Amino acid sequence: MIGRSLAGDGDAFIEVICRHEVAIGAYLERRVGREAAEDLLGDVWVAAFASRGTYDRSFAGARPWLYGVALNRLRHYWRSRPAEDLVPDVTGLVNEWDPWPAVDMRVDAQTVLRAALAGLGSDEREVLTLVAGEDLTVADAARVLGIPAGTARRLLHQARAALRNAPEVAALLTELNSVKGSK
To answer: Residue 5's CB: how many other CB atoms inside 10 A?
Structure first.
């Protein structure tokens, strides 16, 4: 489709957008919140269209390339914002108040995982996010980040090991298992 777009088929790039806009939009929303993601998504398509000549046609799917374009737009966005503006507003993701104790457990789990993720290196966190959160293969995550696949595998292994060995995560898993066992 990218090749057809470069050859002058205007509908081909629209097809690329239609195929990938939900995944790329969701990725952006998870990273910066809905409002900023809507603006960034348009920037992603403009940047992708402008740089489509650099697309490596030896790869059949454009999805990892588009994640790379999106990540570059995110990085540009983050650099241009004051530090206090970088925390996304995720309050709209909560549908209603859940009064049961499971909510407390989820909040605790999220807090522990956020802290453990913050302890990872940025490259480890990016590979883990792309593989676990965006369902890309390790090879595709490597393409997004512009690193060799072996390096991406190593970074993913390091991230998983760091999370598995983090004392807070181990304590949380023990607590979750005890709650499951008592049911």
So the answer is: 21
